[in-house]
Amino acid sequence: MGAEAKIQPALPTRASRPVRVLPLDDHSVAGTEDAWESFVRATPEATFFHRPAWRRVIEQAFGHATHYAFAEQDGAITGILPLARMRTRLFGDALISTPFCVYGGPVATTPEAAQALEDHARALMRETGVPLLEFRRRDQADVGWPERPPLHYTFRRAITGEAEADMKAIPRKQRAMVRKGIQNGLTSVSNSDTDVLHQVYAEMVHALGTPVFPRRYFRLLAEAFPEAHDVTTVLHEGRPVASVLNFHFRDEVLPYYGGGGRAARGLAANDFLYWEVMRRAGAERGARLFDFGRSKSGTGAFDFKRNWGFTPEPLHYCYQLREGAKLTENNPSNPKYKMMIAAWRRLPIRLANALGPFIVRGLG
User: Fold this and answer.
1) Same domain, yes or no, for 158 and 131?
2) Boundaries of each BioF2-like acetyltransferase domain copy (predicted)?
């Protein structure tokens, strides 16, 4: 494609030329990223995590190589594939669509585009020698692809935007916890203060025995999605006790990175936090769907979300393995990591915060 060519965001009605798969990178034709963004917004199967800005976030925050590609026919984008290579000494080597995201995989408007993008991913796997290729599917598995054993679940539910109706939709016991937070005098603010978020988040993940993301990662996310994020922070007597980074896409709100510090549990701050996200998003942004994100079965987060009346829906993490390779299990459910988690909890939090960003880049 010459430098003068222009990729159109409009979807074709009839293709006359073969499908081409082209990269989305810093050398792409001007307007290509905008066309990708328009495709995402126009295609119901595409999610917030298919937006092209994730490419630079992943590269800049973690140093991973990205291989974003799109299918083109007759000058129009007919499919997209966000893909990144996670390669670390501790956790191995994999091509994932998409790391640090809940959902991913190719999205296409024609069977030809879908097949071309899948073939492209397989070819890239062979060329790079990467042992694992993974697509993170929300609704259904890729035909003919094996799936990881059920572990990750997503939680999604409609909301009305009317505070009274949405409060009544919360199961009675969980609703009582929200009211407890209100009685404890908790208040909330909505802004873009990712530094406060990181402070609270770091305290929470340290207690869980998990490395913390770098502060820069949260700042990059805020910069990448200026119109599509906010930070909800819960205050007790003026002090932040819980905080979450939310994404907004179409009519959905997605609370993504967040939780409470040590004082949060006794104050019911986490319960109040997610109510405030729901209430604010419905009233202020017109959100009509609350996406509680993914959690692993058998964890406290999984039970917490189910207590809100959300039905867990299994995610389909489909994969291909190079001959002789084994499926990696880089998660806390793996007994191999239980001792590491226990040891991490004992580290002083300042040391954990300093070391965490070097480790977590392999845990997307």
Assistant:
1) no
2) 174-306
